[in-house]
Write a structure and sequence with these properties.
Blueprint (H helix, E strand, L loop, with lengths): L2 H35 L4 E2 L19 E2 L6 H31 L7 H23 L5 H17 L14 H36 L12 H35 L7 H21 L6 H24 L10
Antiparallel strand pairs: 1-2
């Protein structure tokens, strides 16, 4: 195939992948829509009186639906299966984009969005097998649609890299920060839902929908574990590999460029989150709020800087 054919195939695959992501999102919306119509979950009391295991679909009182799979459960499985298909289609699009450009497919904002979405979906689907986090599907697929929409809005044809990007440190730097970003996304989703469930638990108003989610304590632990894994990746990718790449590109490790400053702000925000949890014992609502602030700084670092700061040395990433 010619480079033009690879580029065309990539465009078709990314567009098709976006449609499939939308279908996965709709499946998860249907999951929660049918949950509204389902019967209240039944109380489950463990023999030893322990709290239900992490990942179980429980409410504040430790409730679980032990009936045969209903439509909500079916649509949950459909959403995960369709997300797998979307990931495979996007993988084709990202790989053929790299073949068309004859380089790694993350040299501009469009490619960041496509590859970042692919990584976010892949990390989510792997963790579905590890921690049973299907309940985050509507958050991940919905956010993926937003990222792809941003990518299409700044689409550029496949082409060569600018000179500053000709370094293998680019591969290491961007791969690490995008993987960390996927973990931060999942953590932010867990933190946001934690705030909702925790409030309902305090008021004793956990209903049919929230009863499908893990307990607030389990969601809080999950958010912490995801940040604990993502933070070292961000530290290495943004504050170690990034400056090394900057040295080869611009002959300096650090120049207080807006992109660099916001990457540091993100690092500080998540460092505060981990420090507060480990040393001060902050858990629950305060930790969730800090985690969401950290994710907001990550989003601004990843996309806002490119769109707002025209004088940034990273404007080539548009």
């Amino acid at each position: 195939m010619s480079l033009e054919q690879y580029a065309q195939l990539s465009n078709y695959a990314i567009a098709a992948g976006t449609v499939v992501v939308a279908l996965a999102f709709l499946a998860h919306l249907a999951e929660w829509g049918f949950a509204l119509r389902s019967e209240p979950a039944k109380e489950l009391v463990a023999a030893d009186g322990s709290v239900p295991v992490e990942g179980a679909t429980t409410g504040s009182a430790g409730v679980v639906d032990d009936e045969d799979p209903d439509r909500s459960t079916v649509f949950s499985s459909v959403g995960v299966s369709v997300a797998w298909l979307a990931t495979l289609v996007l993988l084709v699009g990202v790989v053929t984009r790299g073949l068309a450009a004859q380089r790694v497919p993350w040299g501009n904002m469009y490619e960041f969005a496509c590859t970042g979405t692919l990584i976010a979906l892949a990390v989510y689907l792997v963790l579905v097998r590890v921690w049973d986090i299907e309940w985050l599907g509507v958050v991940v697929t919905g956010f993926s649609l937003v990222l792809l929409g941003i990518g299409f809005s700044v689409y550029v044809p496949a082409g060569p890299l600018v000179p500053a990007l000709h370094s293998y440190w680019l591969v290491i730097h961007v791969a690490a920060v995008m993987t960390a970003g996927a973990l931060f996304l999942l953590s932010a989703g867990a933190s946001a839902l934690y705030l909702v469930v925790d409030r309902a638990e305090r008021r004793g108003t956990v209903g049919k929908v929230l009863g499908r989610l893990p307990t607030s304590a389990n969601m809080d632990r999950l958010a912490f574990r995801l940040v604990a894994v993502g933070f070292p990746l961000w530290t290495f990718g943004a504050l170690i590999a990034g400056p090394i790449w900057a040295y080869y590109a611009w002959a300096r490790f650090w120049g207080w460029d807006p992109k660099e400053v916001w990457a540091l702000i993100t690092w500080i925000a998540y460092a505060v989150y981990l420090h507060a949890r480990v040393t001060a014992g902050w858990k629950g609502r305060r930790a969730a709020v800090i985690g969401l602030i950290g994710f907001a700084t990550f989003l601004f670092s990843f996309y806002g800087v490119n769109l707002i700061f025209g004088g940034s040395m990273h404007t080539y990433a548009k």
